[in-house]
Design brief:
The chain is globular, with a radius of gyration of 13 Å. It has one helix at about 25-30; strands spanning about 5, 10, 20-25, 35-40, 45-50, 55-60, 65-70, 75-80, 90-100, 105-110. Helices cover about 5% and strands about 50% of the residues. A 6-stranded mixed β-sheet has the order 2-10-9-4-5-6, with no helix packed on it. The protein has a 4-stranded antiparallel β-sheet with strand order 1-3-8-7. With about 110 residues, the chain is mostly beta strands. The protein starts with a strand and ends with a strand. Strand 7 and strand 8 (about 75-80) form a beta hairpin.
Length: about 110
C-alpha cells in the first residue's frame, strides 16, 4: 500500500528553523514529482514547494528564500528545511506526489513566541 509518513514538526519561535521529513514508498518516490503542502486552521490546503525527479525545485512566493525542498533518492525521503519561520507559517504540513496519492497524517508546525 502506498504510504507517506511526515515527521519533524514542532513548536518554534519566530525566526527559528525546522526540518521536515517525508518517507515515501518506493513506488511513488522514484517516478514522481514530490511536493510539500500546508493547511492552516480554517483554510484550504496549499502547495508550498515541489521537487522533480531531477531535483528541480519551485516554491510558493511567501516561502521563497526561506524554505528549501530536497530529496534523497536512496532513502525515498523528501525534506523541507524551513528557516526564518514566521507565525503565518503555522500549519499542518503534508507531503504528496504528482499525481496525488493518499494523504499521510501530516506534521504540525507552530511558530509562536
Amino acid at each position: 500500500q502506498v504510504q507517506l509518513v511526515e515527521s519533524g514538526g514542532g513548536l518554534v519561535q519566530p525566526g527559528g528553523s525546522l526540518r521536515l521529513s517525508c518517507a515515501a514508498s518506493g513506488r511513488i518516490f522514484r517516478r514522481n514529482v514530490m511536493c510539500w503542502y500546508r493547511q492552516a486552521p480554517g483554510k484550504q490546503r496549499d502547495l508550498v514547494a515541489t521537487i522533480t525527479t531531477r531535483s528541480m525545485t519551485d516554491y510558493e512566493d511567501s516561502v521563497k528564500g526561506r524554505f528549501t525542498i530536497s530529496r534523497d533518492n536512496t532513502k525515498n525521503t523528501v525534506y523541507l528545511q524551513m528557516n526564518s519561520l514566521k507565525p503565518e507559517d503555522t500549519a499542518v504540513y503534508y507531503c504528496n506526489s504528482i499525481p496525488l496519492t493518499s494523504w499521510g497524517q501530516g506534521t504540525q508546525v507552530t511558530v509562536s513566541s
